[in-house]
Amino acid sequence: MDSQHRHELKTNELAESLSHLPKLLKDNAITIIGILLIGTALITWPMLNKMSRQKDRAEQTTITQSIQMLDRDVYAVLQAPADDALAQTEALNTLLVNADELLGSVSDIDNPNLAAMAQIKAAQAIRTELHLRKEVDADMLERQIQKAEDVYRKAFEVAETPTIKAMAQFGLALCSEELGQNDQAAALYQQIVENESYKPTVLPTQAQKRLDTLADNSEVFKFAAVPVVIEEPVEVKEGIEATPVEVTNPADELTAEEAEETTEPQVKKR
């Protein structure tokens, strides 16, 4: 068989195979698609995983820097001159602006625990600003604490780890306490103390301390009534002078014998 004849046979076999290809693809479509998807996943998964890790690291770096900035803002408020009201106001406003910017970046964070931590730190900054401000009226206090309370609640809903959830719930209790809602604060502290998933954290101990402080502050002390003695005024009759009381020295009232006994003996000279 010459080479030309062999070439014609191979060509005919290929043509016959291609004629059966549509039917073959149709009968094994699901299997073929599955194989293609698995192959694609094996190729792209390492790349996506690497990109995800890089994004997580970038988010963590950004949030860490934002939290450090809030700490610097608090320090700037504390270092502002006490007699410079303008400098103190600017430092306080900067603290609030950076807290709001941190809250604005939460929507871009994919890691739920990282997002919850950012919200907790922003809420802490909002409450800290109130404590550092010299004059706070009732409306401002209620408005800012309610804002912090909303942020803590969102963090509690988003967080997945017990530690971050406990931190958010502890912040909610502090907000209730600062608004004078001691019963609600006590209930939240008690939930933290009794939650078994929080036991490995330090939050139950801190909650118990706050709970004890609330109990001490709410205790009412009753003092025994002291009887009031009303002295009747002494009536002084006209024409009668009060006789002065003579104060005598106790030594003057000693008898002669007692005087001798108390006198120190004298040593005679030879």
Please explain how this structure is put together.
The chain is mainly α and about 270 residues long. It has a domain at about 60-215: 14-3-3 domain (Delta-Endotoxin, domain 1). The protein is about 70% helix and about 0% strand. The chain has 9 helices and no strands. Residues about 255-270 have low confidence and may be disordered.
Protein traits:
270 residues, Delta-Endotoxin, domain 1, extended, disordered C terminus
List the helices and strands and how they pair.
Layout: H1 3-27, H2 29-79, H3 85-104, H4 112-132, H5 138-158, H6 162-178, H7 182-194, H8 203-218, H9 256-262
Helix pairs in contact: 2-3, 2-4, 3-4, 4-5, 4-6, 5-6, 6-7, 7-8
Measured on Cα atoms, how large is the radius of gyration? 44 Å
Helicity, as a percent range: over 70%
> What kind of sheet is the major sheet?
none
Mean pLDDT: 75
What's the helix-strand series? HHHHHHHHH
User: How many distinct helices?
Assistant: 9
CATH architectural group of one domain: Up-down Bundle
Inertia-based shape: extended
Structural class designation: mainly alpha
Roughly how many Å apart are the termini?
173 Å
CATH topology of one domain: Delta-Endotoxin, domain 1
Strand content: under 5%
Quantity of strands, as a count: 0
Brief rundown of the structure:
The chain is mainly α.
